[in-house]
What does this fold into?
Amino acid sequence: MSSIMTFITRNRAQALIVATLALTWLAFFIASPYFLTVANISALLLDASVYILIALGLTFVIATGGIDLTPGFGLAFTGVVTALVMTSIGGTVGIAVGVIAGILAGGLLGLCNGILVADLRMQPMIATLAMMLVAWGCALVLTGTSAIPLNGFAAFLKVGNGKTAGITNAIWPVIIAVLIAWVLLNKTLIGRYALAIGSNEEATRLAGVNVRTWKRRVYILAGMFTGMAGVVMASKLASGKPDVGQSYEMYAIAAAVLGGASLTGGRASVIGSVVGAILIATIRNGAVLLGVPDEWQKILLGAVVLAAVYLDVRRSKSKKI
It folds into this structure.
């Protein structure tokens, strides 16, 4: 029992978000008998899969004390690239190359962000906001503002539309991505340096770490997770659409912060980000089940984002004290 209490004390933010998720699930279960059905949980996890993938990348960026607003329409851009390459090549090879192209397109966005932030010393919020608009514009240019249908790629569509034992297949690549992110954050240099940069960038630089290089790598990694999310979204929608992803970056940022990441840097949790993303998806899912109008859903989710930022401010103050 004492070891459990010690773990909870050391991981207070993560314990709080897990408890909040459990209470939210209980509340929606009481409010709607359809909430805990297999079909609805599958739909919830499919929605959460995109948030999780984006939040994983943002976890590393936020750990450095930075921010990345690109994933919103970066999601559209990478999904469009996936669809374009897939339809151009066709067949099984087209699927494989399209998926790789989508992930690499995300990495390219991340590289641009990394150069702007690390090398040109631009403020992360402004730089990534600009890149978000560039990504959106590129998606529109590549598609001519029309969606690229993927109806002829049944194997690819099974990821976003197929199920195993009633649960969406999208959960399997997401689980793999979560495991990779956890290892990278906790067991490799990119995770250690990301947290060190966020804790004290100058001290990290004086310790001999090439801060610019590692920041660049963090943004590239975040972009690749966005690329994965774009691939899943393209499978889910059975098309590459240039107008998807609006506000997704804000929900993912809120998920990471609710899960224990600090906007001032130096603290982040992969598992916390995952649980936070599931909480965001749960609120959206439950609101739809209860017939909450879309405009009120936006107000509710906006309040969740504000709550996440407020919690981060409170945590930062208590840490200083």
About this structure: The first strand starts at residue 148 and ends at 149.
